[in-house]
Amino acid sequence: MISAVVVNLPVVEATTGGARVAFEVPVTPMDLIKKPANNSPMLAVDPTNSRFVALANRLDGPDFSCALQVSGNGGRGWASARPVPKLPRGAEKCYAPEVAFDGDGVLYYLFVGLHGGGNAPMGAFLTTSSDRARTFTPPRRILGAERYMVRMAIDSARGSRGRIHFVWLEAVGGGPSSGLPPQHNPIMAAYSDDGGETFSAPVKVSDPGRERVVAPALALGSDGAVHVAYYDLGDDERDYRGLEGPTWDDTWSLVATSSKDDGDHFGPGVVVDAELVPPERVMLIYTMPPPALIADARGRLYVAWYDARNGDWDVFVRRSDNGGQTWAGRRRVNDDRVRNGRHQYLPRLAVSHGGRLDVVFYDRRRNAENRGNDVFLASSTDGGRGFSPNLKLTSLDSDSRIGPRYLVPSARGLVEFGSRLALVSSRHSALVAWADTRNNGRSFKAQDIFAARAEMGQSDGGAGAGLAAGGLAVTGFTLAVALRSHRRRRTRRVRSRAI
Fold this sequence. Notes:
2% helix
C-alpha cells in the first residue's frame, strides 16, 4: 500500500562550474509523534520507466525498523510504501533494507529480520512488487541467522529473470553483543537465477588469512564480473569486537576481489590501499559504513572511502583499468584546504550512461565547529583522474550531533548518522538522497531523508533521462501504475532452502 503525502520544497537554483541544483525536497514523511531517525538511504531506478524511483532507508530510532519511499516523477515528489505490512514469523523488527529492480521493472526489497533484546539477525528476507510498490509478495527467507551487512545487486542480462547476487558477513559462533565473535567470520556470496526461490552454494569472498574483515560492498561489471570490496581491520580487535578503548592508532586496509565466472568463485584479495587511518571508533561493527564501489561500461572499477590520514577526514577514490588486478593512484575528492580541521565522509559513487563518474559525500567545510553536515557532489569525466569543483547540494546544513546514541562501549559519545548516502546518475543529471536534521526544533529531534537533483546539462532523452526531465505531474502526489507481464521460466533448483 502507498500512503503519506510529502510536500515539495521550492526549487533551488545553486550552481557551480556549469552544474546546478534543480530541486531539493523532503522524502520521508515528518512524524512529530515517534520522531524517527531515518538514515542510510539507497536509490534504485526502474529500467522500464526511469521516472519511477524507489528509495529504501533504515530507521535507527526510536526503535530499529526499515522503510520504502517511491517517486513517479524522477524524485520531485515522494510517497511511502509498505513492503512488509506483516513481519515474517520469528522476526520482531525489519532492518537494513536494500532495493533493486530487475530488467522487467520488478522491484526487489531485501531486509534483515531482528529478534530478541540484543536485536540479533534471525534471517534475511526478500519480497517483490510487480505493480510499482502497490502490493508485495510475502517475504521469503533467503539467508539464515547471524548474517550481517547483506548486499544485493541484479544482473538483468543473465537468464530470463536476471541473476540476483548477494554478499554478506557470516558470524561463526557467539560473541559480545557490541561486536563480532573473535574467530574468523568470512564474507560470503551466493546468487539466485529464479527471483530468490533457490540459490547457488555459498562461496567465500574474503581471504582465509584475513581474520577481521567487515563491511562488504558489491558491484557488477558489464562483462558479468562480480566485484566486492571490504575492509581488513588487521590487528584492530578493539573495533571488531566492540571493546572499550580509544580510536585505533594503527592502519586498516581496503581490499577488493572479483569473480570472473558470474559469482561461482572469487580470486585472492588485492589491496587497494593499506594506509587507511581510522577516523574514529567504529560505533557498531554490524553497521560499519562500507566503501563505495562501482563499475562502468568500459570495465573500469572505482572505489571510494574516507579516512583521517591528513589529520581530519577526507574522501578518496582509486581506479582500476584491469578488473581490480591493480589500482591507480589515490585521488582526494573534496577540494577544500588540506588539514583544515573539517570532515568529509561517507562517499557514494555512480556512473552515468555517458561514463561520467559522480561522487557525493557529507561535508563540514562551511561549519567552523566541524559539526554541520552539508552534502557535496563532485564529478569526473576523465576516469577519476580529476574532479570538478565541488557542488553544494544542500540549502541548509544538518547537525551531526542529532541522532541515536547506543549504549555500547564502542559507541560512547558518538551519534549514529547512518552508513551511506544514496546516488543514481543519468547522462545529464544525478539524484542524491541523505539524512537531514533541518526539521528539528526544541521538541523534535530526528533525522529525515531529503533528496536533490543536480543537472549537468540538458537531457538528451536517452536511457535514464527521466531523472533530468521530470515526468509525471504531481498534485497531492499520485503515482501512475503500469502492470507488466513477466517471464516466469523456471531455472534449475540449486538449493531449496535459506542459505
